[in-house]
Specification:
Blueprint lengths: L7 H42 L7 H5 L1 H7 L10 H14 L3 H13 L3 H9 L9 H11 L6 H9 L7 H5 L3 E3 L5 E3 L7 H31 L3 H12 L6 H12 L4 H8 L13 H24 L4 H9 L4 H12 L1 H16 L3 H6 L7 H10 L4 H32 L1
Antiparallel strand pairs: 1-2
Helix pairs in contact: 3-4, 4-7, 5-6, 10-14, 10-17, 14-17, 15-16, 17-20, 19-20
InterPro entries: MetI-like, MetI-like_sf
Keywords: Cell membrane, Membrane, Transmembrane, Transmembrane helix, Transport
Family: Belongs to the binding-protein-dependent transport system permease family. CysTW subfamily.
Length: about 400
Amino acid sequence: MDTTFDDPGAIRRSMRAAQRRRTWRGLLLVGPLALFLLAIFVIPIASLLTRAVDNPEVIETLPRTLRVLSHWDGRATPPDAAFQALAEDLAHAKSTPAAGELARRLNYEISGYRSLIFKTLRHMPIEAADAADARAQLIGLDKRWDESAYWSVIADNNKSWTPYYLLASLDLKLDANGGITAVPPNTSAFQEIFSRTFVISLVVTLITLALGYPLAYWITSLPKRRANLVLICILIPFWTSVLVRIAAWVVLLQREGLINSALGNLGLISEPLPLLFNRLGVYIAMVHILLPFMVLPLYSVMRAVPPSYQRAAISLGSHPFAAFWRVYVPQTYPGIAAGSLLVFIIAIGYYITPALLGGAGDQMISYYVAYFTNQTINWGMASALGLILLAATLLLYALYRRISGKELALN
């Protein structure tokens, strides 16, 4: 007689074994996709973001100089041994890629440091009888080697990581005492660029919400066949290249474009309106591109709202507008939150549209990420700006999850 089902312990072991088998089957199904995402998406992004704090140039190229400067108080010019160590380090770095990377890294902190390094490298190796002779030759070569500020930059980069890029991307810097201070007003720019990015994204989100909400509401009132036709029309931008859409907007918005020509022929304007290469053109194009991302979440939520609720409120004496505002709209809050979050997150990462349709004062933070990546080859600043943008996105997503979780708890 089988006594398995009479033994509670055996039943528990059998259930745990079955659960383990289901878990392993699930892992085998999900594992290849997880490994693919890890290798193609997670690891490259994590590797790129580490550039925001990576600081290998000085410690790898000037190790002898850093050892001498570790005992330097940072006030007067360093001792003679530091000059000799610097001459030896630069002599070893001459004609190697490390020399150019060192010059570029130091030039980020003091403008003109690049020319100083290359000027010194052209005279390497310096034949010095002793440390005092090396000091005299370096100062004779360029008076800047007699200024403590240039040595302080080397001494401050004695670690393999640095907060320099992250602070610079927020218009901050470390002072002589190690505290965080703001950079001079005439050199600060990134706080304004971040503010501009969030303002443009917020305005685009509000406009798409104002246009998308009544559109989604109207689609829910249509018969299924007509609603599907309207949704296909809304989804047409997804099937068109972004560059093609932007080129079309250039044709429409330019001074002699279709919009200005039509308004002029109707007698509504006496001269062409400035619709291109300004903030208005950026808003128009971004709203057109992002409107489907607002309509689809709203429509999916509105379809699930029973119309009988609103009719019941009206039958009980409520004004139609009050019934719509107090009964219908609160039930669409999840769609509003999802659509707004989706549009806002996509908008803050926009690059092509502001670059082609906006002016110099309309560029968003992604433009400067591309600028530091492709033109100045400053991977540290590009990674720092990208890291801050990613952190803002994750913060917004966490806020959305928190708000949506509270809404579900209240419901």
